[in-house]
Structure formats: structure tokens, C-alpha cells
């Protein structure tokens, strides 16, 4: 365990005006934390999966030319070349909250088969605690509590529509007192990943 957590100053970065000033602050303050935490969670997840260490990818936002990012993240999983083709874990920040996802975005390989398997075998989803949330579009900040979401409809949309996506996980408010304590914060993040692991493993059944 290291002493890394996220502070009010980290979340305040998303109020900085301008692409380059905001990116400068993200690179200086947030990305080093992603690097440290990604290393920890990658190792712990790999041990649970009985695999080699999972790659860690830190979002660079290199395609942006004008508008500053409203969020930033690191991804754990995929291969050394990237992560969007695969189910992967995300850890990221908006100005208002920290997000912890198992993510299926930007048309991963075998997404129709993965979505169909979740539709047919939803027990791992149904077992998730009530504080979990889902999203069907990673570009939008809004999420839905898992117990209130129309999961079948959302999973069918992910399966049938090219722009369909699926993300499931938990969030912490930027003002959550847990964030003051690095141990509690990291335990919460890792517990979330561990509870999502059965879904991660289920998704990979669709891969040859």
C-alpha cells in the first residue's frame, strides 16, 4: 500500500480554463497518482486472475485541440498496445466525483457475444450491491443505480447498436471523507474491482 489518494485540489483541476493549462495540471498532479495506483491494482488483480501483471494505460487526451477534458482516467487491462478492444477496469475523475468502472466501450471485440451472455446469465450483475451504478454511454456523466436501471434494455442496446456501451461500478463523491484516508480509499477501489471480477471473467468467455 502506498499513500496515494485524491484530494480536493485534484478535483479542482477540472475548473481550470483552457486545454493546455488543464492538461498541464493533469499531467503534473493526477497522472503520477494513476501511475502509482495502477501499478498496485494491476498487480493485485493479476494475482486474483492468476495472470501476469495487467497493462496500465493512462489517458493522454492527445486528440484534443481546443476543449479541455471534463474527466480523465487510467485503464487496467487489454494488451500493451491498448485497452478499448477488451473489457477493462477504469479509475478516473470528474470535477464532482471519482469513478471506478468495469468498462466495455468503443466497440470492443466480441461485444455482441458478451452482451448476449450477460443477458442470458445475469446472476453476477444481480448479485452486485445496491451502491453500484451503470452507464450505457461513457461520454456522459449521468449514471443510474444498478437496482433502478433497465438492465435488459441497456444490454440489448449495447448488443444491437454500434454506439451502445456498458459500464458498471461505483463512485465516490469528491467530498467523501473516505478520500482523506489512502488505505480506506484504495481498499474501496480494490474491493469494487474484486466484486466486478466475475463479470470480467464472464465477458472473456466470448473470446476464442
UniProtKB/TrEMBL annotation:
Domain of life assignment: Bacteria
Matches recorded under InterPro entries: UPF0637, UPF0637_domain_sf
Entry similarity comment: Belongs to the UPF0637 family.
Name this protein carries in UniProt: UPF0637 protein ACFSBK_07070
Organism: Carnobacterium antarcticum
Amino acid at each position: 500500500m502506498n499513500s496515494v489518494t485524491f484530494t480536493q485540489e485534484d478535483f479542482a483541476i477540472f475548473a481550470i480554463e483552457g486545454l493546455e493549462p488543464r492538461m498541464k495540471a493533469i499531467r503534473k498532479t493526477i497522472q503520477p497518482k494513476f501511475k502509482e495506483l495502477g501499478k498496485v491494482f494491476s498487480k493485485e488483480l493479476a494475482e486474483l486472475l492468476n495472470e501476469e501483471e495487467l497493462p496500465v494505460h493512462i489517458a493522454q487526451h492527445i486528440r484534443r485541440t481546443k476543449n479541455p477534458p471534463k474527466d480523465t482516467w487510467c485503464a487496467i487491462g487489454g494488451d500493451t498496445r491498448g485497452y478499448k478492444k477488451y473489457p477493462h477496469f477504469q479509475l478516473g475523475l470528474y470535477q464532482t466525483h471519482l469513478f471506478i468502472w468495469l468498462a466495455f466501450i468503443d466497440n470492443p471485440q466480441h461485444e455482441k457475444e458478451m452482451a448476449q451472455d450477460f443477458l442470458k446469465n445475469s446472476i453476477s450483475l444481480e448479485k452486485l450491491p445496491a451502491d453500484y451504478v451503470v452507464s450505457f454511454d461513457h461520454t456522459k456523466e449521468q449514471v443510474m443505480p444498478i437496482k433502478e436501471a433497465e438492465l435488459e434494455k441497456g444490454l440489448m442496446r449495447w448488443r444491437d447498436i454500434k454506439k451502445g456501451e456498458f459500464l458498471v461500478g461505483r463512485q465516490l463523491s469528491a467530498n467523501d471523507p473516505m478520500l482523506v484516508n489512502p488505505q480506506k480509499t484504495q481498499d474501496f477501489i480494490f474491493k469494487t474491482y474484486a466484486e466486478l471480477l466475475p463479470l470480467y471473467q464472464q465477458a472473456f468467455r466470448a473470446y476464442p
